[in-house]
Design brief:
Mean pLDDT: 79
Low-confidence stretches: 1-44
CATH class: Alpha Beta
Number of helices: 5
Number of strands: 5
CATH superfamily: Response regulator
Radius of gyration: 17 Å
CATH architecture: 3-Layer(aba) Sandwich
CATH topology: Rossmann fold
Largest sheet: 5 strands, parallel
Helix content: 25-40%
Distance between the termini: 53 Å
Strand content: 5-15%
Length: 186
Amino acid sequence: MENTPTSKNRANGSAEPAEETGPGTDQGAHPGGDGPGGRNRAGAESRGRVLVVEDDADARDLISHLLRREGHDVVPAAGGAEALALLREVEVDVILLDVMMPEVDGLEVCRRLQQSPDLATIPVVLLTALDDMETRAAGMRLGVSEFLTKPIVKDELHRRVATQVGVRRREATLDRVRTRLDSLEG
């Protein structure tokens, strides 16, 4: 399992290159694009679109790289304010959110998400170096779905994100079924 801040290429032992990230890069995260669960950059079916909110650039790049390798589309954000702005433009399946960030921290992002009916249903996986009960309790009160403690273990990251993408997709399916039933009854 990987739980270090760098990842090594198993074939030659070299550090894996960080991929260029950001709203202007081609990550399947374009406003008005194919939406969550669309196609990734390689044209393959995406496992999900994940907003990665992390102020540490190295950690953000590593997490983004690990998720892309598993077939996810990644939308990176360097902080809470940027994440909230991106969510007005881009649909995502899951938000991977660091707690401790300057200016707008992760818990404040959660508070703002809960104030928006369109955003309140997006699953949030809270990333924290803090493993204290107070932070977890505050996150749970704010609708956090999962917690990941740093340093992140690759397999745990993949399991938690995959679980929340599945939850989001099942909820979308139920919403479509409810809408269809309502139209048949009316």
